[in-house]
Amino acid sequence: MTERRKLLWVYGASLAFIAMNVYLFHENMYWGLAIPFILVLLILYIFSLDNVILLITFLTPLAINLKNADFGIGISLPSEPLMFGVLLLFILKLLQERFYDPKIMRHPVTIAIIINLVWILITCFTSKLPIVSIKFMVARLWFVIPFYFAGILLFTNLKNIKKFQWLYIIPLIIVIFYALYNHSHYAFDKPYSNRVMKPFYNDHTAYGAIIAMFLPVFTGFAFSWKTKKKSLRLISFIVLGILLIGIIFSYSRAAWVSVAAALGVYLMIRFRIRYYWLLFALVIATGIFFTFQYQFLDKLEKNKQDSSTDFAEHVQSISNISSDASNLERLNRWSAALRLFRERPFFGWGPGTYQFVYAPYQRAQDKTIISTDYGDMGNAHSEYIGPLSESGVFGMLTFLGIVVTVIMTGIRVYNRTKNKEVKLLSLTIMLGLVTYYVHGIMNNFLDTDKASVPFWGFTAILVAMDLYHSGNKEEEQIAEGMGHGA
Fold it and tell me: Do residues 383 and 264 both lie within one domain?
């Protein structure tokens, strides 16, 4: 095609676009303005899928969840439709190329994830509500495939690991400032902490959980003396300060506990405490608890401190199981989940079904002022007990398999690599995941894009570093080449 003909095509297309939008404006329709953005997005999907994944990462903290009250179906815009596009295109590319690095497929974390997905699929067919479970399965796939299976290929380039962190944290900081600004109108009073981050996050627990995940990462960036650019360290210090302010005023006790747990894990690794000593201490502590369980429970029941704006009182309220409505409702949900499990211990009630079936399994003495007879107020509040009720004993065990293999991978990378940057990243990212593993005892958010993007992304980073960045220089150079071509 000659240059003259190319120009004619460009001018012709431009005039057609202008004419179409003039007509649409006249009819009070403005969707034509989106056409250039859609075309750019399509080009990225075809020629640069890694940049689409990074774009989704950036958009996720700012995405807004829209829910149909009649059908109980929600979608996060614009992130989830973009993830679904990556899911479809990645599967099509696999079918066309018929190749995916066998090293990834043989990795223990990948095997654990596949086993978990297969079991979720099986329990979709035995589900009490098959349509709900299939929707849950599809949603899990559009989180896992883009940010784990495609994510590992993206993270073969070490530079993309830091890009991923920064592209999520920048919009998250915008949300933190937005929440603090709204909260300031209420004098940072605790009762309003549950609504000030809306519409970006549904409540303060999800908001706090995500901030907690990134705290270890940016602590590492801020205190790393190996960072060549001093300006980057300074920016990391500022980001760390913002994250700390955000998590304090989230008033999320579960987030605070998860950060404390990550600090404990760090001290274990830092001082090389042997795991058998930890196991021994755990056995002793368990024995002491069961020996004096009635005394402990009596002490807890005497704690009448409710959640409060005073931080000392708010921390004290964590162990209040006598009057704190949030704690009591969590116990109510767990009790209902365990009753569901006892009735269907092997296959469970079906993935994603808890919120639709738990209502009759509440007992009157367990209900709180925030309980509902209709059981329409959310999930089981646990990443472990929830799968136990929805997918049976193997649902919980296969998720625990992911947790154990990921932690083992993170420790292996940290101990094996001689690359200082990889050592720091592996430690901080693993600690970020530890915050979520601990938080997951008390809440579950992996059915949302906000938590799933960093959760599966961090998991993919650890596996990518284990496979491509913790060995010799030659392996790392090969990995860099793969990353550029992803």
Answer: yes
Instruction: Report the SS3 class of residue 485.
Output: coil
> pLDDT by residue (tens digit) across 170-212?
999 999 999 999 999 998 888 888 889 999 998 889 999 999 9
Q: Which residues, 6+ apart, have CB-to-CB distance to 246 below 8 Å?
A: 176, 179, 180, 207, 211
What's the pTM value of the predicted model, to 2 decimals? 0.86
Range from 48-52, 84-88, 210-214, 228-232 carrying the lowest mean pLDDT:
228-232
| pLDDT tens digits for range 214-265 | 999 999 998 876 656 778 888 999 999 999 999 999 988 889 999 999 999 9
Q: Which residues does 165 contact at the CB level (< 8 Å), separation at least 6?
A: 214, 217, 218, 221
- Gap between the Cα atoms of 204 and 77, Å rounded: 20
Same domain, 19 and 118: no
Q: Which helix (H) or strand (E) holds 334?
A: helix 325-343
Q: Are 435 and 468 contained in the same domain? A: yes
Question: Is residue 477 assigned to a domain?
Answer: yes
Beta bridge partners of 64: 77
Say whether both 109 and 20 belong to one domain: no
Nearest to 33 by CA among 23, 44, 47, 48: 23
Question: What is the domain extent for residue 34?
Answer: 3-44
Give the residues across from 76 on adjacent strands.
Answer: 65
Q: What is residue 146's DSSP assignment?
A: I
Give the number of domains in the chain.
Answer: 2
For 5-36, the three-class secondary structure string (H helix, E strand, C coil) is: HHHHHHHHHHHHHHHHHHHHHHCCCCHHHHHH
182 with 273, same domain: the answer is yes
H-helix segments, 157-274: 158-184, 204-223, 230-248, 253-270
Give the whole-angstrom CA distance, residue 257 versus residue 438: 8
**DSSP labels, 376-437:** -S---S-TTHHHHHHHHHHHHHHHHHHHHHHHHHHHHHHHH---HHHHHHHHHHHHHHHHHH
